[in-house]
Design goal:
The protein is mainly beta. Helices cover 8% and strands 67% of the residues. It contains 2 helices and 8 strands, in the order H-E-E-E-E-E-H-E-E-E. The chain is elongated, with a radius of gyration of 20 Å.
């Protein structure tokens, strides 16, 4: 057992960083999509990669009474299985983490409401659990850079809502840099 753990620890490679953009289904809104920057850091452990992903996205929606600004911060710890194919890698991963939702609602005709002494803006926030699966492609460009593509389903559940678990999706596009190593 100890020799197996030592073998995994010896196969840890230099860290890598991924940065790009993501799109996802909002955790509460019924329409639209959340768009924004994404960053991931991690290490390869033999056939596996262990990493942390952070995504910050926004979506806007207008209805009869409000303009809604929907902001999500998603953080995940991920474990991915990888295999080399030609100049790239295919991966399948699972992640678990948290989502923070901040919504700001601005009433249409806010100036008239403010003049009447009524509040023209409402803000609310909540936290929740986020579970995700992802299939990905890492295509080596020029050492140490690579192009990252990934997509998959996710489940979210927010604390202050009565909706229960919500099925969604997310997709990533970005660049990867491996530090101190080669794409070989």
């Amino acid at each position: 057992m100890i020799s197996g753990v030592a073998l995994v620890l010896l196969s840890i490679t230099a860290p890598q960083l991924e940065a790009g953009v993501f799109a996802a289904r909002p955790v509460v809104m019924s329409t639209g999509q959340v768009l924004g920057p994404a960053v991931r850091g991690g290490w390869a452990l033999g056939l596996f990669e262990l990493g942390v992903l952070a995504q910050l996205g926004w979506a806007n929606e207008d209805d009869r009474a409000y303009q809604v600004v929907h902001q999500e911060l998603r953080t995940l710890a991920q474990l991915r299985w990888t295999t080399v194919i030609g100049r790239g890698q295919l991966s399948l991963g699972l992640g678990a983490g948290a989502v923070h939702l901040l919504e700001t609602r601005n009433r249409h005709q806010a100036e008239r409401l403010s003049a009447s002494g009524l509040s023209a803006q409402e803000t609310g926030s909540t936290f929740g659990l986020l579970l995700a699966a992802e299939a990905g492609l890492d295509l080596s460009l020029v050492d140490p850079l690579g192009l990252i593509l990934g997509a998959g389903p996710n489940l979210s559940r927010l604390a202050d809502t009565d909706g229960g678990w919500r099925l969604g999706w997310s997709a990533n596009l970005g660049l990867r840099v491996r530090f101190g190593g080669s794409d070989g």
